[in-house]
Design brief:
The structure is a single chain. This protein has one domain: Farnesyl Diphosphate Synthase. The protein is an all-alpha fold. About 75% of the residues lie in helices and about 0% in strands.
């Protein structure tokens, strides 16, 4: 009788195991990065550097720029991560946010995300406090607390004014940038705060018009959910005019070249806002994402002008 040969275990494919481990580690890293909402951080930092140039009336040191941007990115990442933790239930309902890490599940646990957000905030505080000044660190902390406590927990699910008031959290980077250079908050920084404050509703309401069904399904009373498209378009126009007025109020500090560019950019944006309202009033198909994209371009160009004119003495 022939004796059966023992079954040997399959050879271990070490290279394949390492590939799996790398893939999983990569998924985790990408998940943590996604929690910070990098695209939002980029937009926030776009406003920080020109503000620092204006405060310096020239180019600050590379060290100050680097530490301020790193601290600002950590602070924004902290607020965004904690927002993802708190909003994971409604993120699961909306198509726009259904691919966020805490919604997909498995890669990052909610508790880990919360801890990550808190650690980022602590790192931002220490880095800005020790590397820049404690005024800048305090303002960054205020931005985190405002976004988490006032907007996410206090306003977002309760009132259509959520983004009007809560959007102030996105205005803090200009205060941080100014304080990083001067150690205080000056009038130009407050004007820039107002520019972004009035810019935020047209920017976000245009997006919310596109994803109105998402917000309605999640029970979030964004203005396009609770008001007619005509009302939303009218308010977008009002805030657009207020935004342009705020940009022109910076002219005494930024100079005549800035004033001319701000007027041209403002006219372009207001025309786009008028176009959106006219199409809605006329019953034609509106394209709010056009205004949303225009708002990003507008803000980027406006702050680019601030940066350039701050470096040109003859433009003041």
């Amino acid at each position: 009788m022939t004796q059966a040969l023992p079954v040997l275990p399959a050879p271990i494919d070490v290279a394949a195991e390492r590939t799996v481990r790398r893939r999983r580690a990569g998924e985790v890293l990408r998940g943590y990065l996604a929690l910070t909402k990098p695209r939002i951080i980029e937009l926030l930092l776009v406003t920080t550097v020109p503000t620092m140039l204006l405060a310096q009336r020239g180019l600050p040191s590379v060290r100050l720029l680097t530490i301020t941007l790193a601290g600002g990115a950590l602070a924004a990442g902290s607020a965004n991560t904690i927002n993802c933790y708190l909003d994971r239930d409604i993120d699961a309902v909306m198509r726009r946010t259904a691919r966020r890490p805490l919604v997909k599940g498995g890669v990052i646990r909610p508790g880990e995300a919360l801890a990550f957000g808190i650690v980022l905030g602590a790192l931002a505080t220490v880095l800005l406090g020790l590397g820049v000044n404690w005024m800048a660190a305090s303002l960054a902390d205020a931005a985190i607390l405002f976004y988490v406590l006032v907007y996410t927990l206090g306003l977002k699910r309760r009132t259509a004014s959520n983004i009007v008031i809560g959007g102030a959290a996105g205005c803090f980077p200009v205060l941080v940038g100014w304080a990083a250079v001067t150690g205080s908050v000056g009038v130009p920084a407050i004007v820039l705060f107002a520019v972004i404050f009035f810019w935020t509703p047209p920017h976000f309401w245009a997006l919310a018009m596109k994803f109105r069904a998402d917000y309605a399904a999640a029970g979030v009373p964004m203005l396009p959910v609770v008001a007619s498209p005509a009302t939303v378009a009218r308010k977008i126009l009002i805030y657009s005019y207020l935004m342009v007025a705020a940009t022109l109020a910076l002219a005494p500090d930024a100079g005549w070249l800035y004033a001319g560019c701000a007027a041209v950019l403002g006219a372009w944006f207001v025309v786009d806002a008028h176009r959106l309202r006219a199409r809605i009033r006329g019953g034609a198909a509106a394209n709010p994402m056009r205004l949303f994209q225009a708002s990003i371009t507008y803000l980027t160009l406006l702050f680019a002008v601030i940066a350039v004119t701050a470096l040109l003495p003859w433009g003041r």
